Automatic annotation (TrEMBL):
One GO MF term: thiamine pyrophosphate binding
Protein name: 2-oxoglutarate synthase
Keyword Oxidoreductase: yes
Keyword annotations: Oxidoreductase
Top-level lineage group: Bacteria
Amino acid sequence: MFGRKKKQPEEEYRSPFPKCVRLDSKPHSFCGGCGHPEVLKAFGFAVDELGLQPRVVFGVDIGCSLLSWNFFNLNSVETHHGRTVPVMAGLRRANPEAIAVAYVGDGGAYAIGAGHLLNSAIRNDNILTVVVNNGLYAMTGGQESPTTHPGWKVTTAPYGADEYYIRAPEIIRNVNPTAFVARGITSRQPELRTLMREALQHVVDGRGFAFLEVLSQCPLNWKTMGDPKETFRRLEQDHAKLFPTGRY
Ligand SMILES: Cc1ncc(C[n+]2csc(CCOP(=O)(O)OP(=O)(O)O)c2C)c(N)n1
Ligand code: SF4
């Protein structure tokens, strides 16, 4: 009919969502503009592309990562804060067919869970750990975490955070030379999807520990809500400067 758009053939239609995502679950609970959904989307597409849906067990930490507990049609497990890495390492030992994935925030991974993470990397556990680095404890209101930038004004450091911070991929590379180690960023989706796929493939091939840190934005606690220009300036210029992206 005149003016009506021609219907696309089935095979040409490309969904904006991964197939393994649950569209029926609910409106999600992330704040508008949050980076977590971008990381989850890249993860979901990588699971689809490698055909891993029946084998993946998705472990979520306490923190904003837990908001994804029923995001996917994947087997999942929710753990205590900072304990997702050892839980997934144990699960993989009990079930060698499982593709065990730990999805954790920087607070959970590098503060309360730092010992677990380091030991798992040293043991070369055959799991994938994805750490969402938004530079603070987001779920509890923006306290200083091991990735808070020196001088950032956060809830627990209103006059500016101290000069210490952790660059985890660099440390993990040093303790395990055979691990897959990389750092991506939410604002570069194609690159992030490639890194996700490579990290998952490393585990599928039984090559041991895979570690992917993703630089992510938290507009709520960065106090940039409603200002995407400033959010992404901070992410791409400040955050990516302190934490360089790439394969390690
Ligand atoms: C053992 C324990 N300590 C502290 C808390 C409180 N707590 C819940 S979420 C959270 C912060 C999570 O921050 P992060 O891991 O960086 O994830 P984000 O929310 O930034 O994604 C904390 C400290 C808890 N639930 N359990
Ligand atoms: S508090 Fe930050 S990390 Fe958590 S959902 Fe909101 S924007 Fe995302």
